[in-house]
Amino acid sequence: MARTIDYGNLMHRAMRGLIQTVLKDVADNGLPGAHHFFITFDTNAEGVEIADWLRARYPDEMTVVIQHWFDNLVVTDEGFSITLNFGNQPEPLIIPFDALRTFVDPSVEFGLRFETHDDDEDDDEDDGPDDEPDPPPQEAQIVRLDKFRKT
């Protein structure tokens, strides 16, 4: 099989690196200005550690808000840990970057969504005769910017 560039995987890695950099800055310097984050993650992902009562309440995914009160934010290459307040009850969470589904900073209208490709991987394993053939590759469209230049 010919070698290909896995742009989707590369993009996910780059986006997780961006989040890691942002969270490290917040861990070192606090949240600047009106910035705050809504982070949605898969509660069943490998490495996620949350209290049993939170897992029972959020069996598939959970969204946390990092804004006014948070403590013990520690960022690693694999993910981050943080203590958040749930109804005046501080709870530690460990969230791997691979568990992330969305990261949003509404103060600057910035957001990232991580698509899961589990179904795609399963499809690749079954190359039986009843599989539909892949559509032929389309040629790239080249847009010339010269016609938009002012002369």
Helix and strand succession? HEHEEEEEEH
Largest sheet: 4 strands, antiparallel
Task: Give the overall shape, derived from the CA principal axes.
Answer: globular
Structural class: alpha+beta
> Which percent bin holds the helix content?
10-25%
Question: How would you characterize this protein structure?
Answer:
- There is one protein chain.
- With 151 residues, the chain is α+β, with helices and mostly antiparallel strands.
- Helix content is 25%, strand content 28%.
- The protein has three helices and seven strands; from the N terminus they run αβαββββββα.
- The chain has helices at 7-29, 52-57, 118-125, and strands at 37-42, 61-66, 70-75, 79-85, 90-96, 100-105, 110-113.
- The strands form two sheets. Strands 2-1-6-7 form a four-stranded antiparallel beta sheet, with no helix packed on it. A three-stranded antiparallel beta sheet has the order 3-4-5.
- A hairpin with a 4-residue loop joins β6 (100-105) and β7 (110-113).
- It starts with 6 loop residues before the first helix and ends in a 26-residue tail after the last helix.
- The model is unreliable at 119-134 and 140-144 (pLDDT under 50).
